[in-house]
Amino acid sequence: MLVRFKLDSAGLKLKMSQWGRLGFEERRALAETPCETPEEIDAYRLLLSDMVRKRTGESLSILPAGYDSDWNMENVPERVLARAIEIGVTISRDQWAALHPLQRFALVKLVHRGHHGQNFKRALEEFGLL
After folding, report:
1. Following DSSP, what letter does each residue of the chain receive, concatenated?
2. pTM, entire model
3. Exposed, middle or buried: residue 69 (CB in 10 Å: 0-12, 13-18, 19+)?
4. Is residue 38 located within the same domain as residue 79?
5. Fewest CB within 10 angstroms: 13, 22, 63, 90, which?
6. Domain residues for 122?
């Protein structure tokens, strides 16, 4: 999930077939390499692009601007609120703000279309919201 968070932060799409061709140490490097500041994001893009090109001969896809970035909002995204209400939970703006960005990212991904969200309630518990 940490790598996926960094991919979204950097606006990159990595196909499962590309991920599967990366070695353990490359995957570890992707998890451990910082990707927060504009400079780190640029370096992360270059690192991943080089890895994928070396292993697959392919280029990375770029995500559309603002793709699925609800996790970075000040207010709780509507789809997260709606799913929480379905299971009887209210998430306040202060609770949302207190979450680590990776926690917010996980909650957004767990309510994504096509995702059944079975782990949403467990994530709320783990994050102290339930």
Report:
1. -HHHHHHHHHTEE--HHHHHHS-HHHHHHHHHS---SHHHHHHHHHHHHHHHHHHHSPPPEEPPTTTT-GGG-SSPPHHHHHHHHHTT----HHHHHHS-HHHHHHHHHHTSTT---TTHHHHHHHTT--
2. 0.72
3. middle
4. no
5. 90
6. 70-126
Domain count, the chain: 2
Judge residue 36's burial from the number of C-beta atoms within 10 Å of its C-beta, 0-12 exposed, 13-18 middle, 19 or more buried.
Answer: exposed
Are 44 and 35 spatial neighbours (Cβ–Cβ below 8 Å)?
A: yes
Q: Are residues 16 and 49 in the same domain?
A: yes
What is the rounded distance in angstroms from the CA atom of residue 102 to the CA atom of residue 38? 18
Which residue has 């949302």 as its token pair? 96
